[in-house]
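Support case: flavin-adenine dinucleotide complex. Customer-provided input:
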Amino acid sequence: MPDNLPEALETTRLSMQRFIDTVLVPLDGKLETTTKIPLEIQEQVRQASRAAGFFYRTQPLEFGGNPAGALELTLLREMLAATNTPLASYVFGPGPGLLHAAEGELRSRYLEPLMRGDKTSAFGFTEPDTAPRPTWAVLEGDSLVVTGQKSYVTGGESCDFVCILVNVEQPDGSRAGTAMVVIDRDADGVSIDNAFTSMEGGGHVSMVFQQVRIPVTQVIGKIGEGMPRALGNIGNVRLMVAAQAMGMCLWTLEYVEAHLKSPHRSGAPLGDREGIRLRYADMRIETYVARSALYRTARLVESGENSVNEVIATKVFCTETAGRLIDMAVQLVGGQALVQGHPLEALYRQVRSLRLVEGASDLLRINLVKGRLELQKGRV
Ligand SMILES: Cc1cc2nc3c(=O)[nH]c(=O)nc-3n(C[C@H](O)[C@H](O)[C@H](O)COP(=O)(O)OP(=O)(O)OC[C@H]3O[C@@H](n4cnc5c(N)ncnc54)[C@H](O)[C@@H]3O)c2cc1C
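Agent response - structure generated as follows:
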């Protein structure tokens, strides 16, 4: 557990542990596969989470939520990831995401149903390398006409609406800036040209927008604010990914420890061998250092100080650490860890995406140095 937690968080930690032991672990035992989770089990997790109060910790007060701070959320997300059960993803209620400050129709038609769980959304930012030009929208009176493609929209097949980044143009072709816009999944001109699954099991689509007409009231914020809005909440999401990576490391260390202590065909447990101990020592050292960074950064974020660069450093370091650690775990456990259905086989696939999502490692490195050289930001 992280050291020196405030007393209130220690209480939260204990109640999350109770929730894990009494709800998630027993329900996880009923799963026949880790990919297709029966709807009634998803609902059982949500109901138990509502009763325990965790469901509301990612939701704003105005929607009946009880939002947790960065440190508490980091703790909870790490604990949930350390269970290594897919049921962990049903514990928190939907957050407002990009729509957090939506007003008027955007609020009543999209944000409120989203928060009630009546509608689901997806996010479209990534574009295909082959696109002739980035997705654009032409202003025509009170409408925007959107054309283009988003190539990697998670949950895009089943969502009710998608929030996408577009470059807005005046009818004469002059630029008006970027905007985040909301488009109904079933609007005229929206189609899916490819549905695919990534190696960790996530379902995504490539979406095409052909002359999709939307009212300007479906712009989130103002035209010109697209990029900052798209990236507005990214720091919190990156911290979440880092916490998830550390939870994976905790589960893996425990799994490997049990393996090293168990009988081995050589006659002595693998953990008796010095060479193996050295590898396992490195796994523990790296996890210790990465978790120290995670909790230092979570405290910084909680304090309200500028911590953009520290979150970047933490996301890169924690996800890369988790990648190395799970790779080494597979090596120490041996061929059985690669058999489909083995927990390390699944974890090995899951951890790979963390170095790409919410900012690929090298792009984040470039941003971090930009923050230092051009803005004089960033602690060490
Ligand atoms: C599981 C998963 C879920 C995803 N969900 C979504 C989603 O819901 N919505 C969405 O919009 N996207 C989503 N993505 C896409 C993800 O955001 C992108 O894969 C990621 O941003 C990298 O972009 P790219 O794939 O276009 O690769 P590229 O941008 O082509 O980058 C590939 C590599 O090139 C290098 N590189 C690129 N640019 C530079 C540069 N300027 N300087 C130096 N090196 C560079 C880096 O090493 C980088 O890793 C998802 C991806 C995954 C794996």
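Strands lie at 121-124, 136-140, 143-154, 161-169, 175-184, 190-197, 203-215, 219-220.

Case will auto-close in a few days if no follow-up is received.
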